[in-house]
Design a protein that fits this description.
alpha/beta; nine-stranded mixed β-sheet; seven-stranded mixed β-sheet; 34 helices
Length: 971
């Protein structure tokens, strides 16, 4: 019989013993009698390196310690290791924050390397042996199986309140809710310390799953608290068959579930331990302080159970309930399990009789008595008979067991003394302190509901805007007033009710991301086929598409390339100055804006000549070419109905383009907020609404004032600031309940500021590990955790974000960095992007033919990350930081063309880099204030706020946090 403990942790995990290395795990597996032990933490690169150094392949996908190992009971067999690891996923699904832990078994360290490289693009694998990923658990399963079809994926400790698939605070009610279409790949479940097979047997939905048990040990001595009984040959394939098909899975060795620290309900701070019935009678509140109770495993099982307690099905899995031998010795003799006395007797038993599991389960009681005395002998007898008194654990406090009371111990010791065997010497033992451990999102306020169809949910002002049939309509939409909803409803109404043809409708957005989201919402409303001919995009994207349709050759200069050319022009002329400022001056000249000062006429002329020499257009040239084509050619029917989003941020050239595109159109509909005009340096101005009114004398203006995004507290802070802008008195009426007050936090340094933000984010998600979750557990209905994806950290420049990103990485918190960063100007990055642009245009340089032949076949089918990774490997620059950031940007794009298009045409908010992550859900967003334009986040941190910067005028202060209310409107 093989005893296996598959779920353990290394010294690289949080709150683990530094002794958790291969040698100590080998030693304690021998002491326990465990023949197969998981490595744990395969995702951590340093741990994998140590395993490769210290383990040898033992055949069949298993490993042994390289030097053979030493210590343990005489004759103890050396254990084999199997590659395992646990991954924590924290993400939003079905409107709730979910926290699920998963156990993964792999057939080799090579398979662990491959899967880890894939996960490296999703989250930080370096900060914790059990990494935190902002990834749907279903997607983690898919990635695992794609990387290694032989992998075994097991939901871990499935009933733990804070981090499990069925957990009371953040879990699901069925496996299907969690894993969706991939549920069939889940074949086994780990029961956890606070439940046993009979408790799990109360759910008929779990009948088809194998139940396994493991220790989840954080120190070597805790190995085998729970384990599996296997009748198999030692190999990975046999182990996988046992777990997934039951072939050779004899049963499990279990904790008494009452010993687990979440068996009953309770509130540890008030020392209140309640049964499910007592919790119901107390209304779910602590009888002492009135806070919400932590709901335990038994309570959660009863919520989901469809069988009565005590019902045992005929094919119920075999199990044995045991207590670790040191605790048996302590409970039998009335001392602490951590005492020197218990340690000495434990070692004496191992040396005399063999491994711990043999002593607990099989050793003759007479042999136990001769070695350890009558109390331990009687304690083990009662343990085997199940005669154990149990005090349930609750709210992170381990339960307690009792085998003998003082009178029974005294009687046993006295009885033996009568026959000449001296009682054990009495010593005072040190009491070991019990460990602790431990969390959902406030639902966003819904907008009002109305009739069915595109008018559903519109208030009176929104409805008036949607139905307005004036030639030109301007909607002044304050922050959080449902601007996007109004715009989408207008288009849906035009197509669905008014009968307008999609091919005659164009919607101009400010970012590619906004365009994609608008199209997705319209497809959901009307169906893909109904909106197929609709044009949705940014000014530049639409202009580029129009010119290419006219068969005009267009080579568009990306921003980083334009900066490089501007720098070259300045250097050639010997002029001092910033390349970016030169580009801004060139732009102002091209768009007819007033110059500040005399400018640099020579540099502007040289730059224009350089672009002509390259046969390239910059962004302004692109719009000027589109304007010329629109003014010279016949009216384009696609602009018969033109809608413009974020109207307050268009410049004079774009305003002329709107007029040219729609000059013989039927309707013009613009929407925006003058108070959110943030691109004055590009020529935009809040008076664009007045300019439009001058051009269209019959302009119909509608104002949206009902705010659905923010709490009254946030509006109360924002309105006095916005009210200082010129124009009429600002009105915003809150439609959400009261929430938390905005909080100003002063930090001593930038590092302290970053550390605070990281710690606060961890607190607001309800803790990122067991210990923090216990401390951050919700104690009221309003105090529910958010998800990482609900949060954004905003700043003026990307340099301000570097420390924040480092602090988040230290805490294992996944993040996405949005916007254009300096790495895009790195020579290696520019070389890579230039090569793939040339390859797509069919114009590779001399000497690149072999590279072109290598990459061309996969250009349209391979993911851009894979192509760039291959290019970096062949170029010898895979480990360079800028290249690494480019790879983390590429993961957000399906094709190379899409990536290049975003880097060329995308606005600040379109360009996103993963903080070592690959999927978009469940990560904190780091971005500039400009990049945050038009986006919404329930929780926002503003960092780097100092006197004289970020338009901040206050007394000191370096960090401000705003909770519960959408994107900050910076006036």
């Amino acid at each position: 019989m093989l005893i296996a403990d598959l779920h353990i942790h290394s010294k690289y995990s949080r709150a683990t013993s530094k002794d958790c290395g291969p040698e100590a795990l080998d030693l304690w597996a021998r002491k326990k009698g465990i023949g197969l032990v998981g490595t744990g933490d395969f995702t951590h690169p340093a741990w994998r390196a140590e395993l490769r150094e210290k383990l040898l392949p033992a055949g069949g996908g298993l490993y042994t310690l390289k030097d053979g190992g030493t210590g343990g009971p005489p004759g103890a067999e050396p254990p084999r290791f199997v590659v395992t690891g646990e991954i924590s996923t924290i993400y939003k699904k079905d409107g709730r924050t979910r926290k699920v832990h998963s156990l993964i078994l792999l057939p080799s360290l090579e398979a662990a390397e491959d899967l880890s490289r894939r996960l490296e693009a999703i989250g930080n694998l370096h900060s914790d042996g059990r990494p935190i990923l902002g990834l749907d658990c279903r997607d983690l399963l898919e990635i695992t199986l794609e990387s290694c079809p032989q992998a075994v994926f097991v939901p871990a400790h499935i009933w733990t309140p804070h981090f499990s698939v069925f957990g009371a605070f953040s879990g699901f009610s069925t496996l299907e809710e969690c894993f969706g279409d991939l549920t069939g790949h889940i074949r086994a479940l780990e029961t956890g310390l606070s439940s046993d097979p009979p408790m799990n047997g109360r759910l008929s939905t779990l009948d088809g799953y194998r139940l396994i048990s493991n220790s989840d040990a954080h120190s070597p001595s805790k190995l085998g608290r729970e384990a599996n009984l296997l009748d198999i040959e030692p190999s990975y394939s046999a182990l996988a068959a046992a777990i997934q098909e039951g072939k050779g899975l004899v049963g499990t060795l279990e904790f008494f579930p009452e010993e687990g620290k979440y068996h009953f309900d309770g509130h540890r701070n008030c020392q209140q331990c309640l049964s499910p019935a007592e919790t119901a009678a107390a209304g779910g509140r602590c009888p002492v302080c009135g806070r919400k109770l932590t709901i335990g495993v038994l309570h959660r099982v009863e919520e989901l159970a469809d069988r009565s307690e005590g019902v045992v099905r005929p094919d119920a899995p075999y199990f044995e309930s045991l207590v670790p031998l040191p605790e048996v010795i302590a409970a039998s003799e009335g001392c602490s399990a951590a005492s020197k006395r218990v340690e000495a007797k434990y070692e004496r038993l191992l040396h005399a009789l063999g491994p711990e599991f043999y002593i607990l389960r099989q050793a003759p009681l007479e042999d136990v008595g001769r070695t350890a005395g009558p109390c331990v002998m009687e304690g083990i007898r009662r343990l085997r008979q199940g005669r154990v008194e149990r005090t349930p654990g609750y709210d992170g406090t381990y339960g307690k067991i009792q085998l003998l009371d003082p009178a029974e111990r005294e009687a046993l010791n006295g009885q033996v003394s009568l026959f000449g065997v001296p009682p054990a010497a009495k010593r005072r033992g040190l009491v070991a302190a019990p460990s602790a451990a431990a969390a959902e999102k406030r639902p966003a306020a819904e907008e009002p509901e109305g009739e069915a169809g595109p008018l559903t949910g519109l208030n009176a002002e929104q409805r008036a805007a949607v139905l307005d049939e004036s030639r030109a309509v301007a909607v002044v939409a304050g922050p959080g007033t449902g601007k996007t909803k109004t715009l989408v409803s207008r288009i849906a109404w035009m197509i669905g009710q008014r009968g307008s043809r999609p091919a005659e409708i164009t919607a101009v957005t400010f970012t590619n991301q906004a365009a994609g989201e608008m199209r997705a919402r319209l497809e959901q409303e009307l169906g893909k086929r109904a909106v197929r001919g609709l044009t949705v995009g940014t000014f530049h994207a639409i202009a580029l598409d129009l010119l290419r349709q006219r068969r005009e050759p267009v080579r568009l200069l990306a921003e980083q390339d334009a900066l490089a050319e501007a720098a070259g022009v300045l250097e050639a002329l010997g002029h001092k100055g910033s390349p970016r400022k030169l580009l801004q001056e060139v732009s102002r000249r091209k768009t007819g804006l007033k110059l500040e000062g005399g400018g640099d006429e020579a540099a502007c002329t040289a730059y224009a000549a350089r672009l002509k020499e390259l046969g390239a257009l910059d962004f302004d040239d692109l719009l000027l070419a589109a304007l010329a084509a629109a003014e010279e050619g016949a009216p384009d029917r696609r602009f018969r109905h033109l809608l413009v989003d974020e109207f307050q941020d268009i410049d004079g050239l774009q305003l002329r383009l709107v007029g040219a595109w729609n000059r013989e159109g039927e309707s013009l509909f613009v929407i925006g907020d003058p108070d959110q005009s943030i691109y004055g340096f590009r020529g935009s101005a809040a008076n664009c609404f007045a300019a439009l009114a001058a051009e269209y004398p019959g302009l119909s203006t509608v104002r949206l004032v009902q705010n659905y995004r923010s709490t009254p507290e946030i509006l109360g802070c924002a309105l006095p600031v916005i009210g200082k802008n010129p124009g009429p008195t600002r009105r915003l009426e809150p439609n959400r309940a009261q929430g938390a007050r905005p909080l100003l936090v002063t930090a001593d340094s930038e590092w302290s500021e970053g550390a605070f933000i990281a710690k606060e984010i961890g607190r607001m998600v309800g803790g990122v590990d067991m210990v923090e979750s216990d401390r951050c557990a919700p104690r009221s209905d309003r105090d529910k955790p958010w998800s990482f994806g609900d949060m954004a950290v905003l700043y003026r420049t990307h340099r301000q974000a570097e420390l924040v990103e480092q602090c988040l990485a230290r805490e294992g918190i996944p993040c996405v960095v949005a916007g254009r960063e300096d790495f895009l100007s790195h020579p290696r990055v520019r070389a890579a992007l230039d090569f793939f642009r040339r390859l797509m245009d069919g114009g590779v340089r001399e000497g690149e033919e072999a590279w072109a032949a290598h990459f061309l076949p996969g250009l349209g089918t391979e993911k851009p990350r894979r192509l760039l990774e291959d290019w970096a490997e062949r170029s010898g620059c895979r480990e360079e930081g800028a290249v690494e950031k480019l790879l983390h940007t590429a993961v957000f794009h399906a094709t190379m063309a899409e990536l290049l298009n975003t880097l060329t045409l995308g606005e600040e908010g379109d360009v996103r880099r993963s903080g070592r992550r690959r999927y978009e859900t469940g990560a904190v967003t780091l971005m500039t204030l400009h990049g945050a334009k038009g986006l919404e986040f329930p929780v926002v941190f503003l960092c780097g706020i100092r006197e004289g910067s970020s338009h901040w005028r206050a007394r000191g202060g370096q960090a401000i946090r705003r909770r519960s209310g959408g994107c900050f409107t910076w006036a």
